[in-house]
Amino acid sequence: MKHPDDRKTVVLVVDDAIDSIRMINDALEEAGMTVLVALEGNQALTISQNITPDVVLMDALMPNMDGFETCRRLKENPAFADIPIIFMTGLSDTEHVVMGLNAGGVDYVTKPIDTTELLARMAVHLANARMTRSARCALDTAGQNLFAVDREGNLLWGTPQVCRCLPPPDHEDFQGVREQLEDWLGHRPDPGHSLPIRLLDTPRSIEYLALVDGQEYLLRLKTPQNQNSASAALRERFDLTLRESDVLLWIANGKTNREIGQILEMSPRTVNKHLEQVFRKMNVENRTAAAANAIRVLATL
C-alpha cells in the first residue's frame, strides 16, 4: 500500500534551451520524479497558478523575463514560500550568484549540469523544505495561526490556514492590509498588542508576537471570540467547572498566573489550584500542553 509520502516529487524546470531540458528531464524521470517544463518565465508563472511543484530548477538567463525576475515573481505567491528554487547558470561569478540568492533562490549549479550533483543538492533542499512545511502545518494543527511580514507589511511566510484567510498578495485587498500593517508596525507595538482588521469581510485581529532577527515581524491571526461562549466550549469539552474553564481560557491566551489572578480577581495561588484540577481533567502535565489542547478547541469556534 502506498503512503501519502510515497507520491512522486514534482519538479518545475524553467529553461529555454531544449537540449538542456531533455538531459535534465531524463535524469529526473530516471530518479522517479515528475517533470513540468516551462520554456520562459511567463509560462512558469502560468503553471504556478494551478500547480505548486516541490522544487524549481531555474535557468538564470532567458529572453523576455530572466530567471531572477521569474524567481521574484514566483516568491510573491505564498504557496511558493517554502519551495526551493535552484538556479542553473553558466555564470558562476559572484554578481550573478548574489542576484540569484537575493531573488529568492536557495542554491545554484553551473552549466553544463552534473546531474549527480544536481540530484544531491535537490535532495538536501527538498528535505529542508518538507521539514519547514511540516512545522507550519503542526502550528496550524495546534491552532497557532502564525505568519510573518517585513517592515513594509509584505508577507514573508504564513501557516497554511493563514494563507487561506489572507487575500492573495497581488490582490488590491491585500494592499490595504499591507498598508495597515506597515502603519501599525511603524508605531512599534508591544508584544501582545492586537490590530483589529477585516479580512475577506470577516472581522479578525492580528496579534504582534516578536521581531525576529531585526527584520521579520512574527504575527498571529485571530478570530475575535465571545469570552462566554469560548469558556463554555472549554467547560463542555473537558468537563470543567466555570472557574476552571475561565482559567484555562486565559492560559490559552498566554496569560501568567499573576495576570489571570488580576483578571479573575483571585490570588495566583488560587489560580494554581484551579490549574492542578484542569491538568488532571485534561490528562496533561503542564500549562503548555493544556494551552495547546484548548487552542485546538477554540480554533473550531
From TrEMBL:
Keywords: DNA-binding, Phosphoprotein, Transcription, Transcription regulation, Two-component regulatory system. It comes from the Bacteria. GO terms for molecular function: phosphorelay response regulator activity; transcription cis-regulatory region binding. Residues 10-126 form the Response regulatory domain. Pfam families: GerE, Response_reg. SUPFAM superfamilies: C-terminal effector domain of the bipartite response regulators, CheY-like. Residues 233-298 form the HTH luxR-type domain. The keyword Nucleotide-binding does not apply. GO terms for cellular component: cytosol; protein-DNA complex. The keyword Zinc-finger does not apply. InterPro entries: CheY-like_superfamily, Sig_transdc_resp-reg_C-effctor, Sig_transdc_resp-reg_receiver, Tscrpt_reg_LuxR_C, WalR-like, WH-like_DNA-bd_sf. This is LuxR family two component transcriptional regulator. The modification 4-aspartylphosphate is found at D59. One of its GO terms (biological process) is regulation of DNA-templated transcription.
